[in-house]
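Write out the 3D structure for:
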Amino acid sequence: MELNFNLKEVNELINFQRINGHSLKKPYAKYLPEGEDKTCPPSLLLVGDQGVYLMNHSEKTMPRKDGKGKKEGWSQVVFAEECNPHKLDFDEWRYNKEDSFGGDDGCEIYPIKNFEMVSQDYYNKKGLPKKGYEDFFTIELSPKSFYLKGIKRRKK
């Protein structure tokens, strides 16, 4: 299943992380067996939980734009358009989450350099975003695999 993430918002996550430092420890490192590599490159996290979303993996928590969850340390996230619990009915986002990410909650590490390479290649061919259009990172996702498919441009 294809999931689309707003490119501008994803770039905000990446820029925040660049400024505030990358966490190079896997988010689930404490659960890994002794001797297993617990480090990761500068990355975004692809999370399946209440929807499917990308979040930064930095030293600091990125404050949410809506100001909620400040005490709890909630971080700003970018939901997939197809799995956004704030915009879709429960049955729709939940079905799409299970179809793409699986029924269990979890996270996958996705290196920032992959997003940057796809962005650079796309903008070299297409140019900067045009007024009245939005660009989206497209990830092909199934419960067993995922990869960054590319960028799509569509009219707002």
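Residues 62 and 75 are 5 Å apart (CA to CA).
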